[in-house]
Write a structure and sequence with these properties.
By secondary structure, this protein is mainly alpha-helical. The protein has 7 helices and 2 strands. The chain has one domain. A two-stranded parallel sheet has the order 1-2. InterPro entries: NPHP3-like_N, P-loop_NTPase. Keywords: Repeat. This is Nephrocystin 3-like N-terminal domain-containing protein.
């Protein structure tokens, strides 16, 4: 640090620039508009029981709590509204998370190939440690920016960076 302050070591400045450059995730191909939508959330005061149940599950620290909550039911029962409501709430409270919604209207855009790249970018935007871990993965393998292999995306863009930052992220990571 002393050498940097007195400009004795010009290499430090170059290294710092390269680190900042590596954190730029703009070149990562992701889906636009697949996140939560305020117009699709539950009406205020409705579905409070299920919403409370889900929020309690998110905050539950018991190691025996399942890591996945599967919301299921018949068409038109409000699953999407609940999902949008939870995603918007979690975003509002500052949680580390992401929401990826599919729509029949967007089938031609092949969003399924961009799902985990999009989620990874969302998580990086919410947590600096995850952002650095993701940038490291992309620096190691640039093909991750455009691959349509969702299994590879899941492993390299979500699981491995989350594993590297485990213990640094405050609270649970929620993906809707």
């Amino acid at each position: 640090m002393e050498q940097y302050r007195h400009r004795k070591d010009r290499g430090v400045r170059v290294d710092a620039f390269c680190v900042l450059e590596d954190l730029d995730l703009d070149s990562l191909v992701r889906a636009r508009g697949a996140g939560p939508n305020w117009t699709k959330k539950c009406l205020d005061g409705t579905r409070t029981e299920i919403l409370t149940e889900i929020i309690d599950w998110i905050y539950d620290t018991d190691e025996n709590v399942p890591h996945i909550l599967w919301l299921h039911g018949q068409a038109g029962k409000g699953k999407s509204a609940i999902a949008h409501t939870i995603a918007l709430w979690f975003e509002n409270v500052g949680g580390v998370g992401s929401c990826f919604c599919f729509s029949r209207d967007w089938q031609a855009e092949h969003l399924e190939g961009k799902i985990f790249r999009t989620i990874a970018c969302d998580l990086a935007g919410r947590d600096p440690a995850f952002q650095r871990a993701l940038a490291g993965a992309l620096a190691t393998d640039g093909s991750l920016k455009t691959t349509s292999d969702v299994a590879l995306q899941w492993q390299k863009l979500i699981l491995e960076p989350l594993y590297k930052v485990s213990g640094h992220v405050v609270g649970n990571v929620v993906i809707v």
